[in-house]
Specification:
three-stranded antiparallel sheet; extended; alpha+beta; about 10% strand; about 200 residues
Length: about 200
Amino acid sequence: MIKKGILSVIAIGTLAISAYAADKVITPESLSLRKTNIVDESKAAPIDAKYNAPAPGAAKTIERSYENAPPLIPHSVDGLLPITIKNNACLGCHMPAAAKSVGATPIPESHFTDFRPTTAVKDGKVIKDGRAVANATDVTIAKFKKLKKLNPARYNCSQCHVPQANVKPLVKNNFKPIFSSDKLKHKSDLIKVIDQGVK
């Protein structure tokens, strides 16, 4: 009896959707947020974004999107990007030794930390931190080591940190972050809480 009732509801729902969809023509353009053909984007133009941010040193920091989120770049990046293997202009102001004197946000401790365990293969066995393990995934997330210099994995700043543009969002964002402390709206404590829930 219950099965027949469920099947009846599904059948009625399917008929209602079919009747509604019969009046609607679904096109490749109607599926796209940019209202361009999603099958052929050869004529799709990028958004005309205006990056009219103030010069470095003149901008106010932007509240983080969520606790310990990578901070957004509040200033102009003209002449600073792209970052290359020979040049990273961000480091001139944001390295901890220089940041305070120029009023920049210092690169956090987490960027001077190696979170990857030391692994090697010896006699067909994976050796991690000096001991044999069943496989390379047997690692402890809480184990990390401090470095005396910037972790090379963190060198490409624009991989996570992005400048802001005056553009209208294609989808409304209703997300409201909750911070455990007001100071974390503009600061990171990631290195202190990285192993939260692991120990």
